[in-house]
Backbone:
């Protein structure tokens, strides 16, 4: 247990949920469902049942340091890894793994996003424990694959090799980014594909060896910082090298290339909640299938909407069907649910035409 | 000129424009069109070209005293008449006329709402001057009638008797509240009907005599206060009698009954701006016929909407047609333009189900 570590990646900007989620307070820091805990806090709560609290690290952008320490008073500043620039997941993970490896050569680590939904926590905990036991004994890269229940086009898929038919562990064959619907249906029907959850388990030694093989330049930069990790000079060192790191995802840099990637097939009620549509699907609905998040609402002739205003506000809405109504600070967004992929464009237009104060 | 007075009635609660207009700051105090002056200020500005500033009185609910003095620093507290309860226009006018008559037995007065739109100010000023000259010489009640240009169902109508064909003054025959469309068309085609603007001109002696005849109880209460008007005891006296006054409009109490009511036919680009629809009609539109009031907006696939958020806010709206989007303080309203008559119901539901903080 004392060799078990957790890295929670909490650097996302949450622009898909703009303006409800903003640069200043992205999705992972919000309590979308009014449970009293943000996504980050819920993720932390889950892992604190598996990993000693002092072994849980939060990797995020420097901008969010205060928010993280405020939301997670249980952790120390040393457990917050601050990225001075956005360089996707590979540099972030290289930093975290090198720091942890410096502290503990036997470290066995689960790496997870901070903003996903897990409905069956017991299954989740037993699955993570099983994975950690596996990587304690095997120098393989383990990724958590979710059994798909629909031809979802918003997720990545992992093709798995056949196994003995008893184990939940499979060798990974191929990785596919968001497929079109036709392909997603073929994946689903084949039974050979799992959703890529973005959660990884490995021992520190194994992943560092993989970085050495497939992303050597980045690996060397973080290795060279070993003497600074855990010292007052750590941040200064990270700041000096981070900007020059390749901007690349761990999937693309390592998982699609390494030959020791295995998949643990899981089924713990997972969603990455990456779209308003998925938030809508997982939220409580009124009799007309409207979802109201955080605020109060009075709805007339309305159905299938998702309404998310700041706490304490009231939405009085008449005659809307299948819309997103979201607000924060100075911005109100009204958009058809079916058009939510355009929100990124709206954010960009706002930046260009209105000003950065508004995003 | 020194005998000319003006009473601006500014007690409306503006619930038709809720939540953009609220109990705390009703429509007359808002700068809907972003001109830098509220409706009340614009009304005051117009009359200050006709009547000495010290002869302009503002009648309103006690709640709005501070707002009035803040928006009109040119006037003294003595010029603000505060109604401790809502009793419609007859008691309000009885109060104002008795106070003015106490000060000046020759007073010649224009009484006007505070929240109407006047597009042709020069025509307006010459019409009011003509009316004041008429009531200086005639002991008649004069009401301003507007030549209708459409079968509007939201206004009251005044039927006029034939005159010599040269004068703009007519004897009033009948008053009709908001007619249905069929009747409104008949009114329009007949040429005998004018819109009731709610603006009245009379000398103080004449209207007080009319109150004596048709609303004696109310008249007596305000006559009995003569010794207090203009003294520190005025408000205390008004507070002691106001609650017990009949809740009735001047139209119903006096104009529909008196036989000396005349109409001055006018045509100065008037609208009572009593609905979102009329605000929409009189506002500047973008190429897709959208109106944005006060706030900024980025609109996609939108047409025929009216969007009114507080100053400094941004509305990003996709895929809406013919809606009202209005916000203030803690409430966001989204409602089809064609359903705006239901806003009163929404306000009431909010009061009952959510709480008075929200209205």
Residues:
């Amino acid at each position: 247990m004392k060799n078990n570590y957790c890295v929670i990646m909490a650097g996302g900007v949450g622009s898909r949920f703009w303006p409800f989620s903003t640069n200043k307070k992205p999705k992972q820091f919000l309590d979308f469902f009014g449970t009293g805990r943000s996504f980050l806090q819920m993720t932390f709560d889950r892992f604190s049942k598996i990993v000693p609290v002092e072994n849980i690290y939060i990797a995020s952008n420097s901008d969010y340091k205060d928010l993280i320490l405020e939301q997670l008073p249980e952790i120390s500043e040393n457990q917050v890894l601050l990225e001075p620039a956005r360089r996707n997941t590979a540099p972030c993970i290289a930093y975290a793994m090198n720091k942890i490896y410096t502290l503990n050569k036997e470290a066995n680590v689960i790496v997870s996003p901070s903003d996903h939904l897990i409905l069956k926590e017991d299954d989740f905990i037993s699955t993570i424990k099983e994975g950690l036991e596996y990587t304690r004994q095997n120098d393989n890269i383990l990724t958590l694959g979710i059994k798909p229940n629909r031809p979802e086009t918003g997720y990545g898929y992992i093709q798995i090799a056949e196994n003995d038919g008893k184990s939940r562990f499979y060798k990974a064959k191929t990785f596919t980014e968001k497929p079109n619907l036709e392909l997603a249906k073929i994946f689903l029907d084949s039974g050979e594909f799992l959703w890529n959850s973005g959660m990884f388990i490995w021992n520190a030694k194994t992943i560092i060896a993989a970085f050495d093989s497939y992303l050597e330049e980045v690996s060397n930069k973080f290795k060279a910082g070993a003497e600074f990790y855990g010292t007052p000079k750590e941040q200064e060192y990270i700041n000096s090298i981070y900007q020059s790191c390749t901007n690349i995802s761990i999937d693309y840099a390592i998982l699609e290339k390494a030959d020791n990637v295995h998949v643990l097939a899981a089924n713990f009620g997972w969603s990455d909640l990456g779209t308003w549509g998925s938030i809508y699907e997982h939220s409580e609905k009124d009799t007309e299938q409207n979802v109201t998040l955080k605020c109060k609402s009075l709805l007339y002739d309305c159905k299938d909407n998702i309404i998310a205003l700041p706490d304490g506000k009231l939405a009085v809405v008449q005659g809307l069907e299948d819309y997103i109504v979201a607000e924060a600070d100075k911005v109100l967004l009204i958009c058809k649910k079916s058009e939510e992929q355009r929100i990124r464009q709206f954010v960009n237009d706002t930046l260009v035409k209105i000003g950065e104060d508004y995003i």
